Amino acid sequence: MTSRIIYTHDYLQQLPQAFRQHLLKNGLNKEYGKDWEDILNKEYSETWRVENLVLSHWKILCRYAHTPGEALAEFLVGLREGRLLGTRCSGCGRVLIPPRLFCEWCLREVSDWVEHSGEAFVSTYSLAYIGTDPGVRLAEPNIVAVLWFKDTVKETPSSKTVLHAAGLMHMIRECRPEDVRIGMRVKPVWRPVEQRRGSILDISHFKPAGE
Amino acid sequence: MTEVYVAGVGEIPCKPSYPQDFREMLFKAFKNCLEDSGIDVSEIDAVVASGLDFFEGVSITDSYTPDQVGGRLKFNTLVTNDSLNAFIHGYMLIKTGWFKNVLVTAYAKASNILNYGEIVLNTWDPHLIRPLLIHHFSMAALDAQAFLSRRRGEPRDLSIVAAKNIRNAQRNSAAAYGADTDIEKIESDEFVSEPLRRSHVARLCDYASVVLLSSDNRSAKAVVKGVGFAHGSHSSDLSERVFGKFAWVRPAVSQALPSSSRRVVEFVEVSEPFASTELMVLDELGVYDGDVLKGVRGGDFMFDGALPINPSGGCIGMGYPLNAAGLQRVVQAVKLLRMGRWRGCLVASVDGEVVDGGSIVVLSAG
């Protein structure tokens, strides 16, 4: 009994060229059996010897299919419909956006759904001159921000320390970088219905709501 | 009650890259530790390794640790966390009474990671945060901005921290990035994500270190006086995160050190992937009498100040060795204690660049 493994396109792309060509030429790119392992080892050793490699580059493909869970699935469906959904704990009264079906404060299940207007204010922000690659500088900074939704903040009565706030991290646009500040009121800008797909990016960005 | 001593430390200096692989790097650090401790390899009972497979690019990376550190056919365990947490696990093993000598190991081969930003991106919630493609420097900047806003600080305070650490690193032969810089030079750096400038971010490095913990005080270089660990609010979508404040610090320091004993802390070594991290940890530690930002501006945290912070140069001056940062700080703390200038110190390390969680260890001279 031999194990059979299907090569994916991505997997083939990261193999040394000579090895990849060999697989394709011999029709072995779709599957291989145990007998093939000897050939595979030989090909690798030859590659190392021929090219005299000091470093071996190997790209790890990180691919997952994440289950969003019941609460977040509902949230994402809501986004597709242009609705911002959350849950409210009947114990402590907190509004949870993004929603959860449990409250870790009260350790009870949460089943009350609420819909929020999306009106929020800037809790913290940064003018980001980098994207995913810090070596590439953006011509104009992205305004990255944490937005707390209106009427969801819980503070200690005395010190006004924030204990909880329902909020999202997102981008602020339609705003000059020098104008953004903590406490600024913002509102969501939704993508057109036909472009929504149940993603956080169904909210295109947030923009100033005016004082 | 069993006391726990640091019997020896070993490291190889931080460098942007090493031609050796991680096994070779660890072996050198191990040999240095063994020589420092004077203990024979046969006396080592267990190995606690710190490692994160995503950083190593190797699954079950702990399986590849024992051979080069004398751990073959012995008790081995991996802590997939910052290495100060691995240190605490080693401490606890000795406290059980079952182990006498426990080796704690950590290394970083950051130069082998070709897409570090993308690797860290996998930390975040795939539905809410990752699609935004925000670099973790910007995540840290959100913390920094919130901290400075809350504490009425200035971005320049971050430059004071960075300049201090880069200058301190000049004294440390294990540091990769020490230089004779000043605040104005740092202030002229470009922003990577406001308020963080390029020099406010610790550069990655290759590094390895090994620490031998023992219940035997024969070759004690330092005494472990207390340990603590805590997490703040944790959710990968950051919805529960209070930016600008490290909730983990106070409970962790309370575990490690009674508030009445905080005067034993004569200097602090704290892993600071960002200059703001150092200030945020210090702000919650409760070991400095006064306003932390005034202390920064007044020079109290300089090498010769009232409470030196990162006299070794920290991660900004030495290089940031990923999850090895905590053990890197322990090794520097022990080296500094052995200078004879200070009698006690506190070591703190965050669980990752932008994680609201971390470990604290209190050491005194052996």
What oligomeric arrangement do these chains adopt? heterodimer
Q: Output the helix-strand order of chain A.
A: HHHHEEEEEEEEEEEE
Strand order of the largest sheet of chain B: 3-2-4-7-1-8-11-10-9
- The CATH architecture of the domain at 5-114 and 205-214 in chain B can be named as 3-Layer(aba) Sandwich
Number of helices of chain B: 12
- The structure class of chain A reads alpha+beta
- Across the major sheet of chain A, the strand order is 10-7-6-11-12
Tell the overall outline of chain B. globular
> What's the number of extended β-strand segments of chain B?
11
Approximately how much beta-strand content do the residues of chain A carry?
A: 25-35%
Helical fraction of chain A:
10-25%
- End-to-end C-alpha gap of chain A: 72 Å
Please give the CATH class of the domain at 5-114 and 205-214 in chain B: Alpha Beta
Domain Thiolase C-terminal (chain B): 262-338
Organism (chain B): Caldiarchaeum subterraneum
Keywords (chain B): Isoprene biosynthesis
GO biological process, one term (chain B): isoprenoid biosynthetic process
Q: How would you describe the overall organization of this protein?
A:
The complex is a heterodimer of chains A (211) and B (366). Chain A is α+β, with helices and mostly antiparallel strands. Chain A has helices at residues 9-13, 17-25, 36-51, 70-80; strands at residues 84-88, 95-96, 102-103, 108-109, 112-116, 120-130, 137-149, 154-155, 162-164, 167-172, 185-190, 203-208. In chain A, the strands form four sheets. A five-stranded antiparallel sheet of chain A has the order 10-7-6-11-12, with no helix packed on it. In chain A, strands 2-1-5 form a three-stranded antiparallel sheet, with helices on one face. Chain A has a two-stranded antiparallel ribbon with strand order 3-4. Chain B has 366 residues and is α/β, with parallel strands linked by helices. Chain B has a domain at 5-114 and 205-214: Peroxisomal Thiolase, Chain A, domain 1, CATH 3.40.47. Chain B has helices at residues 22-37, 53-56, 83-95, 116-121, 136-151, 155-168, 183-187, 249-256, 275-285, 292-298, 314-318, 325-337, and strands at residues 5-15, 46-50, 75-79, 101-109, 191-193, 196-197, 206-214, 222-231, 267-270, 344-350, 357-365. In chain B, the strands form two sheets. Chain B has a nine-stranded mixed sheet with strand order 3-2-4-7-1-8-11-10-9, with helices on both faces. In chain B, strands 5-6 form a two-stranded antiparallel sheet. In chain B, 60% of the residues are buried. Chains A and B meet through β6, β7 and β10 of A and α4, α5 and β5 of B.
